[in-house]
Design brief:
With 268 residues, the protein is of the alpha/beta class. The chain is built from 6 helices and 10 strands, in the order ααβββββαβααβββαβ. The longest helix is centred in the C-terminal third of the chain and has 23 residues.
Length: 268
């Protein structure tokens, strides 16, 4: 593990927490929420591939599948795959073609069961969107990553078990008939509570939920950034039809160790 990179990411994460705390002074809840979305956007941007940008708005696909939710907080899109349709040249808000969308991040000031269920429902909608390929295209691309980030949780008042946030995510996924191991939801980071992600067991084939071992808030943010960075590089190569084994392209998370523990969601 490169300690310089780790310390840099931890310092940025600490700064994010300070800025987020300062946003508590903003009385307008909608504005406070949007400012916190921008904080997450800012900490991710330096570690994304140079061809990946962020925006906010609506994701669409060629068949124009109707969506109940039409506003996504942070959309990470690959401009080499399809151009965004922005409201203006100076705006980051607009329409984003599904071919280019690598990930979407829902950001909340405080996580609660209702927000988690809404996020899961939106993630299910996104998973049903289809890519637009040429007439002879036969590739089976992995869909956009769906990620949830919250600065705190109402679980401080409800339950203090170490995997409570994952437990209620799995509960709402099952209520919506979503397989918790499907990958439709890839990461959940609740600052101060934990960071969980979909990964693989030691056999390299079997999916499992994994929890970050370090419990400090700055570490949860640090590894969230690292995993998002890695995911964007990985998704870009796959959608270009290139293998990942022979490339040196990598996210900043490749320079961190992997201090995660497998979690059996059936035992939560």
């Amino acid at each position: 593990m490169n300690n310089y990179i780790l310390d840099k990411l931890r310092a940025d994460s600490f700064h994010l927490l300070q800025l987020s705390s300062n946003e508590e002074k903003v009385q307008h809840t909608g504005l406070r929420g949007r400012l916190r979305e921008l904080l997450i956007d800012n900490i991710l941007t330096p570690w994304l591939p140079p061809y990946v940008l962020s925006g906010t708005g609506t994701i669409i696909e060629a068949e124009n599948l109707k969506r109940e939710s039409t506003q996504d907080d942070i959309i990470l899109f690959d401009k080499t795959l399809a151009p965004p349709i922005l409201g203006s040249n100076n705006s980051k808000e607009g329409i984003f073609l599904y071919n280019s969308v690598l990930a979407r991040i829902e950001v909340k000031s405080t996580a609660n069961r209702g927000f988690v269920k809404d996020f899961a429902a939106t993630s299910l909608e996104i998973s049903k969107l289809k890519f637009t390929g040429g007439p002879n295209s036969s590739a089976n691309y992995f869909g956009a990553f769906n990620l949830f980030f919250a600065f705190k949780s109402d679980a401080d008042l409800e339950n203090n078990s170490p995997n409570y946030e994952l437990k209620r995510l799995v509960e709402v996924m099952k209520e919506l008939n979503i397989d918790p191991l499907s990958g439709i939801i890839s990461m959940v980071c609740i600052v101060g509570k934990g960071f969980w992600k979909i990964g693989f067991k030691a056999d390299g084939k079997t999916r499992t939920w994994q929890k970050l071992n370090p419990t400090e808030a700055v570490d949860q943010i640090t590894w969230f950034v690292g995993c998002v960075s890695n995911s964007c590089f990985y998704a870009h190569m796959l959608r270009q039809g290139r293998g990942t084994d022979n490339s040196l392209e990598s996210g900043i998370g490749m320079y961190l160790d992997h201090p995660f523990t497998d979690i059996d969601f059936n035992s939560l």
